[in-house]
Amino acid sequence: MSNKEKKSKGISRRKFLVRGGLGTLGVLAVGTYVFRNPLRRSMLEMAETMAPTYMGSGTEPNLWFELTKENKVIFHSPKVEMGQGSFTSFAQMIADEMDLNIDQITVIGAATKTGVVDAMSTGGSLSVGGLWQPLRELSATMREMLKIEAAKKLGIDVSSLSTKEGIISGGGKTMTYAEVANDITEWDIPDTPELKPMKDYKFIGKPVKRIDLNAKVFGDPIFGLDAEMPDMLLAAIIRPSVVGAKFKSADTTKAEKMPGVVKVVLMDDWVGVIAKSYAQALAAKYKINVDWTIEKRYTEEDLRNMLQVGKGNQSITQKAGTALNSNDNDVISMEFTSPIGAHAQIEPNGAVADYNNGDITIILSTQVPGATQKVVAEAFDVDTEKVNIIPTYLGGGFGRRLNTNHAVQAVQLSKEVGKPVKYIFTRKEEFQHDLFRPPTHHIMKGKLNNDGYLEALEHHYASGDVAVNALIMPRILTSVLGTDLGAMRGGQIMYDKVPNHRAVQWHTTLPFATSWWRSLGLLANTFAIESFVDEMAIRAEKNPVDFRLASISNEGNKKRLYDVIKLAAEKGKYNDKPVNGRAMGFAASTDANSPAAHVVEVSIEDNSIKVHKVTCAFDCGVVVNPDQVKAQCEGSIIMGMSGAMFEKMTLEDGELTPTIYGPYDMALMKHAPKQIDIHFIQGADIPLPVGEPPMGPIGAAVSNAVRRLTGKRLTDLPLKLS
Amino acid sequence: MKIAFTINGSSQTVDIEDGNTPLLWVIRDILDLKGTKFGCGKAACGACTIMVEGEEVRSCSYAVKFAEGKKITTIEGLGTPENPHPVQQAWIEEVVPQCGYCQPGFMMATAALLEKVPNPTDDDIDQNIINVCRCATYYRMRKAIHRAAEIKNNSNS
């Protein structure tokens, strides 16, 4: 386990400031930039282990907390809430260290103008782990600050004061936090107090209900597309349907005469329609004829020619022992593929923007408020501070909103009409201008020793961009000597006892944008590796679970993987005889230092694969909220099934298709397993990534079950029987 | 043209140029009820599901002119935190939502299903609840649908 996060400094007095005029008490703190050592080896290790590190935004103090007159705390979160439940975990941490109840805490996404936003993004399953140390330290410091002032006001020694539910008591007297903070202008700031031991926490480690549950059950207007500004107009944009098409000219005469249309805007590479209502903007949009310059209409065949092992930029990302000799007759080799995947988050992208003499305000669903602020400031040549990005709750993130540069178009439209404008993507735009999960091609090679165990295992894989060319990260972090660190996720061989193993990446930038999709390369890479390892076990006539365990060290950090494999097999009854007509499938993965293993129970019904039950063993270290970690596992498993069994975008005559749900086949209610059991192992003393790692094994586990049922090895995603 | 209907128990008249405007946009942008969501605009995802005369309707593909004289219910009219509908009660008990965007559509579809099928089987649920949830909260949703039926039937007896 990496202990990098332990080296992070506490929130020292120098970094802590208090400001009046924001409710009763506004607490500001300076972000701590922990990330360092951009050397290749540690970069690759970082990508492997993803030690959660909060990357604060620089050296200026930023607002973290407000304490209101009603004795409530508002936490301005540097991370956004996109369903992963981090806001609830943050509230648990604050409640425990500040001695508050959960309902005394409100969490909102920090706006760039007033709060601290994570310099990288909300993603990588790093929110809870990343804020684990700093947020508890800030909360404990605030509690102590309040006690110091209460001691002065009550004339009691601070050591005889106690705190509970936002009230300070001692010597028979009590004061609320708000009463203490009222009229204090000069605060004494103590050194960072020692944090409470885990056993004393009342909320951390408990299944606290999501703090946004009521808002989401009663339909509150909390999402980006729900936002409004006074006097706002609505807009639609025309983008090309054909990959790589360039705007030539447009006839907008008819559109300009359509009801409600305020202005049609012709830009260098897009056309915008601004109207009084969205329906009117859309109706006018469809009356515009655009001429595009189309140099080439790409097809699936072009794609497969571009993207294959042996083409593009080669990098060896893992190497132990010697490489397999292709003339060796004992080498077994298999090929696997995965298709282009769409994010298909249900809330379309969009933004409400106001351009007011160089002051810019944008409300939107984004995983990258900081990066969006920079892009907009550059586009309109204004200082960064002039751009305020207000993030809302996200109607799904999944990596799609790690690039929200469409904010620039919304601002441009607002500038054109001198009023706030809300721009909304159509679903077709979503499907054709997604930043797709790249297609992949894999060649697995392996060799058994005389005892029938793995002597060599190699993963050669080709992928489009994931981290390379991404908006959010400094170039050094996306690519080290040409390796795409996102495509690499799950691509390394985790079987450390196999004496000869290696992973070789072939990276190609495709003619359409590909990028982050929940778990990045993990789903496809694990599908290839774990399908192949299963196949090798079958050829060696060994139990696939025992076969795997024989190749993993039962010590050090690898013991965590060893343990989840054993636990999943035991709890999922992998070795028991299944119900007639069903078979068990097994697979495991280690992503972002959180190992997961699944046993699935599968049958074939009407020539399609039916998953009845999934048993998952998962080690994500400290579980801050067991109910929500389970929810993330359930969601990851079913979304992973969707990606592995149904979803596929194709290139037809230059267009990415399909462009609507339904034809873009996804897992629905009827496909969801009727039983999902999650078992935790705590193999680390900090919270490790949760949202993505449990997705890893699902595709391979299902495919391995199908192999047992039918004797047939499926090698392409989505998994289809014929 | 003027179109009159009842929404969440109150009478409304909207004045709109084009009677073919999807009811979704009237609900969201004229009546300012933002709980009904835009997802695809083609009745393919169900995020915009409401009830018209107790029937499940995907409002993105339902012209406002057809709402004349009808009784409409949106998520805001289903229940309140103080007095939740059995479906909302069950959704809270099972902690169903993740990102939450598609959830009003699912809850409306479930409420409509329970009106017709008070005790839905798993098969009834599979056949009738066909909205799309990208967070894939289906596992908890199924439990919540069964639980909602139980709450509803208990309160009726």
UniProtKB/TrEMBL annotation, chain B:
PANTHER family reported for this sequence: BLR6218 PROTEIN, OXIDOREDUCTASE WITH IRON-SULFUR SUBUNIT
Keyword Iron applies: yes
Any Pfam family: Fer2
Protein name from the UniProt record: (2Fe-2S)-binding protein
Keyword Cell cycle included in the entry's annotation: no
Boundaries of every 2Fe-2S ferredoxin-type domain copy: 1-78
Signal peptide feature range: none
Upper lineage: Bacteria, Pseudomonadati, Bacteroidota, Flavobacteriia, Flavobacteriales
Keywords associated with the record: 2Fe-2S, Iron, Iron-sulfur, Metal-binding, Oxidoreductase
